[in-house]
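Allow me, if you will, to draw on your knowledge of protein folds for a short while. A protein sequence and the structure tokens that stand for its backbone fold form the material at issue. I would ask you to consider whether the tokens describe a fold that such a sequence might reasonably adopt. Thank you for your consideration; the sequence and its tokens are set out here:
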Amino acid sequence: MTFFRVTLFFFISCIGCLSIAQDSRPNVLLISIDDLNDWAGKFNGNPQMLTPHLDRFAEKGAVVFQNTHCAGPVCGPSRSAMMSGFMPDRTGAYGNSHNMLKSALVQEYATLPEYFSKNGYTTINKGKIFHAHASEHGLDRGQWAWDTWLPREGGAPVDKTKYYSRREGVYGGKKMKDSPYADPRGSEFGWGPTIGGKEEMSDYQTAQWAADLLQEPSEKPFFLAVGISKPHLPWYVPQKYFDRYPLDQVIAPVVDENDFDDVLNAKGEPAYEASLDYLWTSQSDELYKRAARAYMASSSFADDCVGVVLDGLAKSPHRDNTIVVIWGDHGWHLGEKLRYRKGSLWAESTRAPLMIRLPGMDKAQDCEHAVNLLDLHPTVIDLCGLPARPDIDGRSIVPLLENPTQDWPYPTVTTQGYGNHSVVYEDWHYIQRRDGVNELYHLKSDPYEHKNLIRSDNPVAAQVLAQLKSFVPTDLAPELPKNEPGLSKEGFDMTLKKTRNLAKLK
């Protein structure tokens, strides 16, 4: 047994011993990065993207999970699943408009921070961890789940003379006449430099707050969740981050315009079409490159924010007793599959970054096995020696932290809306939609999923297909009611304090 495995075994064994004082249990630092995809350095999606702080975190001793997928390929269902411990098909929280609090299952069980609080931890949050929902009680950011919850502060406006917006038909600060792709509906697809430096940005202020907080002693172990919102749209970050990527050196993803010819609907026609965002950027190579550059600029800014938090931990009294988890909530398209954003069942949308470092780890390791972000829930409970939760979904991936290359015969499932599912196992990816569209890809030989093997006569593909189909959920919870506007934030907080009793939750 290697020294690392001995150290990890000793660490995991000791934290569960009753003889160890409560304040000696490990702390948890959970850093979420919104919309970060596999372009981040150690995930090898694009060698151009500069994320030195994330890279250094991995190199100094972390397990990099290369085949992590989300429970749902948009913010709400992904975060709801991870924080509640239940898959979307069990709660009915399939989309961003579904607040998991309306699920009877979630009402019965404590969320992850609530469970840590019940078991003696101080739980603290600033930045996006839960997805924000409009509700009958006001804006729900999951503030009810924490011992201490702080709203984000700061923000810098975009320089209107230099920004780009598909919705508004703006190109380099200039309004274009009769743009066929301008549409004010939906969320912004745009980018540009901010007026002001990084110190004015909300994410940077959140990171600095966390770094300062980590310098303080703590009588109880803590569960600290820090949410970084970039590179979520719009890509408004200081100019210096755009300058890191000279436009003439940007290499945007190569796209197959005929990519959907082998993904057919019941009429024998292509089941998908190019998105409005893609049609806009594909007008010119320059605009296409500018979009990739803006995403990389925003990701580098997010990386700097993560660096502030990690540097704060390194200087803190908690540096030797803190588990660090860095994760993105899902993937992100940047032209691949003729689209941008998330919300698809292709790997570019379902695959998410995940890195975990335990106290004592000093060796960089990769894990290629398929895991789910939902698995973080039982994993951190396991690592901290809390009572196991057999009723939740997911499984602890502690064995993979001990030995990332051991056998792991488990697929992982992603659900997009009611009745649409994706199953990933090692190098294979199966997609099943409720309208009858099916896809099968071999990710190792076809990472961008250009060749649909669903009608292949390859006997291996046929055998794998039969196995993956068996993991598609069949007993589906109905969709939760849509969010409703209502009380002010103060009214929301007061209502939750009266109605959600932590002591009663399992």
User: Anything to note?
Assistant: The first strand starts at residue 27 and ends at 33. Confidence is low (pLDDT under 50) at residues 1-22. Residues 285-314 form the longest helix (30 residues). Residues 23 and 277 are 51 Å apart (CA to CA).
